[in-house]
Structures are given as C-alpha cells and as structure tokens.
Prior knowledge:
Elements: H1 2-16, H2 22-31, H3 36-47, H4 67-76, H5 87-105, H6 108-117, H7 119-127, H8 141-158
Helix pairs in contact: 2-5, 3-8, 4-5, 5-6, 6-7, 6-8
Amino acid sequence: xxxxxxxxxxxxxxxxxxxxxxxxxxxxxxxxxxxxxxxxxxxxxxxxxxxxxxxxxxxxxxxxxxxxxxxxxxxxxxxxxxxxxxxxxxxxxxxxxxxxxxxxxxxxxxxxxxxxxxxxxxxxxxxxxxxxxxxxxxxxxxxxxxxxxxxxxxxxxxxxx
Length: 161
C-alpha cells in the first residue's frame, strides 16, 4: 500500500511540477550564474512550461517576456535575431533578464518581485522605504502570491534539474 501511495504522489508531482527544456535551462542558468532551479521555478510560475503562452498584457512564451523587455535585453547583449515563441530564445532572453534584475537589485527575492511586477514598481517601492533596499512584501497581492509560488517550488526543482 505504501508503494502505491508513493507512486501516486510522484505522478501528481510531475503534473504539479512539470519540467521541460532542461538542457536549455541548465545551459543558460550556468552561463548567467543563476541556479537552474530558480529559472525552472520562474518558468513554472510564468507559463507552466507552455512555450505558446501569451498573457493578456502581451507577455510571450515560457518566461512570459514582454516584447519591449526582449528588445532591450537583446540589444544589450547584441542579439540581433530572436523569436520569443522559440523555447531556446525565450529561455536565453528570460535568463539574461533575470540576471540583469539580480545584478540591479542584489537580492533574489527582490529580483523575482521585479520579474513579475516590473523593475520600475520595485524601484519605486524600495525608494518609499527610507533607504531599505530589501523588500519583504509588495503592495501587489498578485506579486506576493507569485513570489511565494516561485520559492515554494524551489526545493522540488533543485533536485530535478
């Protein structure tokens, strides 16, 4: 009976925590000095590994990148041609953007907040905190839930990727 419960539980994990595009995640995370599990968690939170996802705000692909953000990151890294619907390109640009946010904010949690809420919002919130450069929460309930979703999945993905 116990082995049956374990098999059912593990099968449920694969549905709740999908993992596709492992080699692209690993390669881009390693190249940008980011934990591969963090990239996988962001992808799960953004698109649940659906490369065809498009948000109602216009974010595209696995890492739900806004076209203007993709253009900025591509230009910054001399990437002339890319396709946000291509998983390889999307992971590359999304990981480069995540690295940019990590460098800008110096804190993983704050960078994840900025990935979801926008760097402008996070910068404003930080400036409103009288010099405290680390946020523990945001005024956006959606962003707070997003951050929780990303970090709750971390332990699971760090052992799978």
